Amino acid sequence: MPNGAEDRAMLEGKTILVTGAASGIGRAAARLFREYGAAPVLFDRDEAVMDVARDLPGSAALVGDITDCAALADALERHGPFDAAFNNAGTEGMGGRMVPIADYPEEEFRKVQQVNVEGLWNCLKALLPGFIARGSGAIVNTSSVTGWLGAPGLAAYSASKHAVIGLTRSAALEAAPAGVRVNAVLPGAVETPMLTERGFAANPGFAEGAAASHPMGRIATAREVAEAAAWLLSDRAGFVTGHCLAVDGGLSAR
Ligand SMILES: NC(=O)c1ccc[n+]([C@@H]2O[C@H](COP(=O)([O-])OP(=O)(O)OC[C@H]3O[C@@H](n4cnc5c(N)ncnc54)[C@H](O)[C@@H]3O)[C@@H](O)[C@H]2O)c1
């Protein structure tokens, strides 16, 4: 089979839950997974997710919040069982504005943990029992290089993305005996609304320095992150679990 055809079949026949699919990395992932033969189920709290699905024949969509266990149970009931999941929904807090710990509002700190940590926890709790019972399945969680590195002005976000790695590794160890894999992608700066519409707008000078802070001299496209997730979710990564895959142009290699 020529390479192109193999690529198109990489996720053939898999029903894949994609959270945060209304925008950025999640939207790019939904499109890419479909190209690779999957039936993506798009989940987002933003109703724009319905438009994304409308433009993507072979996909389905649900409006819901990952902090709401009932909404996740409904997604499973209506569109499950899933073969795989890309737990990607997340929030940066403060509308992207960098604020030192001393000045960071408690309520905003809690909101970031509620979405990025508790929301992921809810997704894992909803998905893992079925995957383990069936003895198959793959999960990819979206962390960040700030899950490895400190991020001044983004401490609440960085703490939440460190927690994503803890959840990923723990879930991987719990699920491995059943043949279920759990991994994480750790993007550097990615060209999505989170960064280009909010982060860059809220922090003078950030846009100018972002590309140069990556050894490859540019930021990532959302599709490049989606490619890494697609591989980790595919059977080609059959013996890869508990892994943190940086997609950061060398940033964390420094
Ligand atoms: N853009 C970057 O530079 C970058 C870098 C590293 C990691 N990330 C991570 O990548 C993931 C995707 O971010 P993005 O850049 O595509 O941002 P984005 O803001 O473009 O998209 C995030 C999507 O998640 C959805 N969402 C947020 N909270 C939700 C909730 N509680 N329930 C359901 N949906 C929710 C939003 O509605 C939005 O559609 C996030 O986890 C983010 O932290 C982004």
Automatic annotation (TrEMBL):
This is Ketoreductase domain-containing protein. InterPro entries: KR_dom, NAD(P)-bd_dom_sf, Sc_DH/Rdtase_CS, SDR_fam. PANTHER family: DEHYDROGENASES, SHORT CHAIN, ESTRADIOL 17-BETA-DEHYDROGENASE 8-RELATED. GO terms for molecular function: oxidoreductase activity. Belongs to the short-chain dehydrogenases/reductases (SDR) family. Pfam families: adh_short_C2 (PF13561). The keyword NAD applies. SUPFAM superfamilies: NAD(P)-binding Rossmann-fold domains. Residues 14-190 form the Ketoreductase domain. Keywords: NAD, Oxidoreductase. It comes from the Bacteria.
